[in-house]
Each structure stands twice: as C-alpha cells, then as structure tokens.
Design goal:
This protein is an alpha+beta fold. About 50% of the residues lie in helices and about 15% in strands. It is globular, with a radius of gyration of 21 Å.
Length: about 375
C-alpha cells in the first residue's frame, strides 16, 4: 500500500512552498514587528488567490479547485514554515469550509466565489474569556427577534476581524447554538484591537443587542452543533499543520547554524550534546508530522477524527515547546537576537501551543475519554 502523497497533493504543496518561499523573507516580516503595520500581506494574498490556493478545498462550482482538506492542510503547513503574514487558517479553514458544508445555497453563492478570488475576506470568532472550546459558546447569547436573532456578549482573539467582510460567530440560544455571519459596522458591534506576541491582527468583539437578519443565520440547533464540531476539529488540525511547518523550519535553521558555528576549531554540531539535542528535535518533528497527517487525512476522508485531532494537538503543543527551547539553546545568544529570525518562530510556536487549548488540557480530556471507554476501544 502506498502511503505517499498523491501527485495533486505534491503539486499543491510545491506550489505553495514556491510562492511563499519566494515572497516571505525576514526583511519583509520585520516591517510588521511591534505593530508597525498590520500583519497582512495583501499582495501575497492576491498571489495565492491567483494561483487558486485560497479555493483548494472549495467546490469547482464556486470557483475552487475541488480538492480536499488534506491539500488545505498542506498549505497551512507551508504558511507555518514561512510564518507568512496571511489569514489563511481563519479565512480558508475556520470560515470558508463550514460555509461550504453547512450554509444555504444562497449563502454559498454569495460568499464562496469571492472568498476564492480574495475579493471577500472571511474569519471566525472562536474564543471567549476562559473558554477555548468553540463548540460550547457561553458568553455570547442569541435571542430570537422576528425572523432573525439578536446577539449580546463578547468574543476574544478574533483574527483579522476589522479587515474581514464577514465574521462567522456562534452564540448560545434557548434551543442550542446559533451560528451567524456578522459584518463589521453593524449597530451594537464594537471591535477593539488586542495585542498578541505574534503581531497578528486580533480583536475583541463586544456585542450589545446586535441584530442579525435571517439571511445571515447559517445554522441553528443540531446543525449548528455539527458545524461547530467540524469547525473546531478542522481549525485545530490546521493549527497543528501550521505548527509542523514552523517547528520543522526552526529545527532546520538550528541544524544549519550548528553546522556553521565553530568552537574550539570545529563545528559545534560535532559536539555530542549538541547532536543529541538536535536529534531529539528531529524525532519530535517527525512524530508531530505523523500525528498531524493522520488527523488531517481522517478529516479529509470524513470519518470520526476527534481523538486523532486531540492527539495531534497534544503533540503540536509539546513539540513546539521543546523545539523552541532547544533551538534557542543551541543558537546561544543569537537565538534571542531580534536581528536574527528565529525569535519569530518561537513566538508562533508558543501561540500555536496555547491556541484552542494547551497540551495539559487536551491530555486530561483524552485521558477521560480513554477511562470512559470512548477512545482506543474496539
């Protein structure tokens, strides 16, 4: 049995790698440091759209390539490898894919073609204060108001909310969750910038009786619960892929540095302690790769993937943590020098580690599932 990538998967991965590798550089990334400018390269975003990569998992009838989630995950990995200043996960994974699977035909026709061409920017509000579980909105409430709903509450760390044309948002309703599309500028909606270590544009949304018309309600009840489950798993898996790309690049950056840095007349890579530390990083990254690909392949096949996604997220958190520390340690003082690009990878590795729940929380949850016979049982 061949477990390798298909030709189309290789083509998508290589295309993304070529474009991002050519267009993203430490010099370009430096212009966003310290919030000097919004961390969004619109020119590069347009190039990905022209190459068809924004619609890789969108059906051909809406202008996409018609491939699957695995191909989308490979692009997320390349975005992480270059820590590209793009809203790829929030736009393509967290918003466009749930719209394609759960929205009405009218909503799909209205939103998906523009999302593929880059004319529309989508994002999703996933987190609340002290609540990192997108499937269980607690602090944002929805009440029926005529044919639509009225929303009140708060969402945190919403990527690119101010730049987006539509924000996918979930609220708790009287009969279950409600998922809607918000437009910045609605009466009662306040968008406040937050500052995060990666300099990605993230925002606090405060909703005070925000009215949403019926045509912008995506799902309610059981359908909304299914949407949120899919959104949570695909976003988490995409974060793992992003983490894989970033960790792999940090590891290879470290291997290159230790091969060139001389001490006592020889490369420090020849020191046994250095070699062991670097080898552990390689093993870690390859284990993350296997678990990440397992999760995204199961999601691509449409089979139950909750356990595999959770395992991948645990590995993503732990590997990112260990690789970041080892890379900085083996670089010595250079590792924390902001004129050297490693520090940006370390901040993203930490961000991905904690986003949508750290390893400790996920490990405890996985342990409860195993104890209850809900995982790894025939």
């Amino acid at each position: 049995m061949d477990f390798g990538f298909s030709e189309q998967q290789r083509d998508v991965q290589n295309l993304a790698r070529d474009i991002l590798g050519e267009q993203v550089s430490p010099e370009k990334l430096a212009q966003y440091d310290g919030y000097q400018a919004p961390r969004f390269d619109r020119q590069l975003w347009s190039q990905l759209a022209e190459a068809g990569l924004l619609g890789v998992a969108i059906d051909e009838q809406y202008g996409g390539m018609g491939f699957g989630f695995f191909e989308a995950g490979l692009i997320a990995e390349e975005v992480g490898r270059n820590i590209a200043p793009l809203p790829y996960i929030s736009h393509c994974i967290s918003a466009a894919l749930p719209i394609q699977q759960f929205a009405s035909d009218e909503q799909k026709t209205r939103l998906l073609p523009g999302s593929v061409t880059g004319e529309l920017l989508l994002t999703a509000a996933l987190m609340e204060a002290n609540n990192e579980d997108p499937t269980q909105p607690l602090l944002c409430r929805a009440q029926v108001a005529g044919q639509g709903v009225q929303l009140s509450g708060e969402k945190l760390c919403v990527p690119f909310a101010e730049q987006a044309d539509h924000i996918l948002l979930a609220a708790a309703g009287d009969t279950g969750p409600v998922v809607v599309l918000l437009q910045p500028g609605l009466a009662g909606l306040s968008i406040e910038a937050m500052q995060v270590s990666t300099y990605e544009p993230q925002y606090r949304l405060t909703l005070n009786e925000v009215s949403v018309a019926a045509e912008n309600i995506v799902a309610t009840g059981d359908k909304a619960a299914a949407l949120l489950k899919q959104l949570s798993e695909t976003t988490t898996a995409a974060l793992c892929a992003h983490q894989l790309g970033a960790a792999d690049k940090a590891m290879r950056m470290t291997a290159s540095y230790t091969a060139e840095r001389h001490q006592f007349g020889v490369p420090i890579a020849t020191f046994q302690a250095v070699g062991h530390r670097a080898a552990n990083c390689f093993i870690d990254v390859e284990c993350l790769r296997l678990n990440c690909y397992q999760a995204i392949s199961r999601l691509d096949d449409g089979v139950e993937s909750a356990v595999e996604v959770q395992i991948a997220k645990i590995w993503a958190g732990d590997v990112g943590h260990r690789v970041s520390y080892a890379a900085q340690h083996l670089h010595g003082g250079t590792g924390i020098d902001r004129d050297y690009p490693l520090w940006r990878y370390c901040t993203w590795l930490r961000h991905n580690e904690m986003m949508l729940g750290g390893s400790a929380r996920n490990l405890a949850s996985l342990g409860q599932k195993i104890a209850a016979g809900e995982a790894f049982c025939a």
